[in-house]
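User: ok so my PI wants both of these folded by tonight, can you help

Assistant: No problem, let's get them done. Here's the first:
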Amino acid sequence: MNKYNERDQQDVLVSNVLDDFAGEIVDLFHALKKEKESFGEMGIDFEEKAFYDILKGLAHKYDFDYQEDKLIALAKEVKMVVDDKSKYTDWSQRADIKGELKVDLILLLGKHGYPPVDRDEVYKEIFEQAENFKKYQGT
């Protein structure tokens, strides 16, 4: 108790910083837990949620609407296509496999009418995001 009462101003500042940091860590933990649980409620897994977020983000960025249930179904199929092509260990260095991935994604997006507007930027971003997602996941 005496040590606490005899601390100097610098110790108080350090204590305040640590308290603030601890509070932010707790808040971040709760936010991450909520985010982790969000995909379960949607009926999709973690990777499908990542593709869902990519597709939804592109719809918002390029200002077009796409139905939520269709977005979830599309995210599931995108994951299957990317998983199929990324099963080869060197897939991200092989132009032939990356080309197949692009063709398969174009066909899949066309089948689902995504995007409902003709924007080459959307296709380009989807390819980059799909490739980067699997490349940096280590699978």
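One down. Here's the second:
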Amino acid sequence: MFIEQRIYTAHPGKLPAWLKLYSEIGGPASSRTLTPLMGMFTVEFGQINRVLFLRGFDDIDERERGMARRDADPDWQRFLGETRPINALMAQEAKLLKTVSFSPIQKVGQPFERKLDGDAMFVDHRTYDFHPGKANAWIDAYEKFGKPVQDRLLGQLLFFAVTECGPINQAVFAWGYSSLGDRDRRRSQMMADPGWAEFQKATGPLGALKQQSTLVLKPVPWSPIR
């Protein structure tokens, strides 16, 4: 499965108006002409005034056909016309990701099954940059040693993918938590677990990681992942 991840950065104070029009006009038009929205989130910690959204494609050629349908859709043109005067967006970024075999979501339209307590969700969205040629060995060690520990101790893995287009040699993945305190407690337990030490022992000699970055996200009310 391919995932198109987009991050839009807005001028301060202008994102709410853009989001309102997207929820009412642009989002429904996109889901009708492209594929259903997978998830949409605002940034709570990291570079703020941003929205991140995910859309999946089982057939990447369907994206091109869908973009043509969307561009011809009257509601999409109305969305563009109504958002243009707001002048909300100052930057846009797009990546094409491909899910790995152990990613929970593997096909378009797969229903999201929430496994967290309560109604709230905070998403720990992580991007790991690898030295060329070393990502696969790290991901294999993560699946064998690291993921079983995290499955046992962390929140809910939402997706795990690698970059196909955009900055390559990256893994992009996200975990959901019921609160920021829940995230902190669970990660503390993970760091103290002997199994996590085994994972670090297995990956340390690889020298694979070049950089790590994280965002804390909150789902918008109409996000399927929430």
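The longest strand covers residues 89-99. The chain has two domains: 2-97, 99-219. Good luck tonight!
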